[in-house]
Write a structure and sequence with these properties.
By secondary structure, the chain is an alpha/beta fold. It has helices at about 25-40, 60-70, 95-100, 110-120; strands at about 5-10, 15-20, 45-55, 80-85, 105-110.
Length: about 130
């Protein structure tokens, strides 16, 4: 597995760390684990860190399918989701657009401080 899912009690959010190779199966399994362990939380705040992904092995179709999959998960409806990306390699753009088309927003950030500030604020849209 090339991911970790854990609860951060200090910020009251779920941290997902992705590293190494990004595959469709790994991402689906990570979201399944997140939903099973933390899907009951209200509000559900998620910080997904993809800055350590070194290889994107998901086709464009798989990325779009994953975005749709995430958007359709009942446990993630209404979740506040921040994605930490590297400026040089955005591995979530296609997924983010696909999820957006189905009503779920992911917001991208380049620094953890910005992401945490938004996740713990009452702001609807990052600013």
């Amino acid at each position: 597995m090339s991911f970790q899912v854990r609860y951060d009690a200090s910020y009251r959010l779920v941290r997902m760390l992705f590293y190494g190779e990004a595959t469709y199966d790994n991402r689906v399994e990570a979201v399944r684990q997140l939903a099973a362990k933390y899907g009951h939380m209200q509000p559900l705040r998620i910080l997904a860190d993809v800055r350590r992904v070194q290889k994107m092995s998901m086709s464009r179709e798989e990325q779009a399918r994953f975005g749709s999959y995430v958007a359709q998960m009942p446990a993630l409806q209404g979740a506040r989701i921040a994605i930490l990306n590297r400026a040089q390699l955005n591995t979530t753009a296609v997924m983010r657009n696909s999820a957006h088309n189905e009503g779920l927003e992911f917001f991208s950030f380049l620094t953890e401080a910005q992401a945490l500030n938004w996740l713990t604020s009452s702001a609807e849209v990052p600013g």
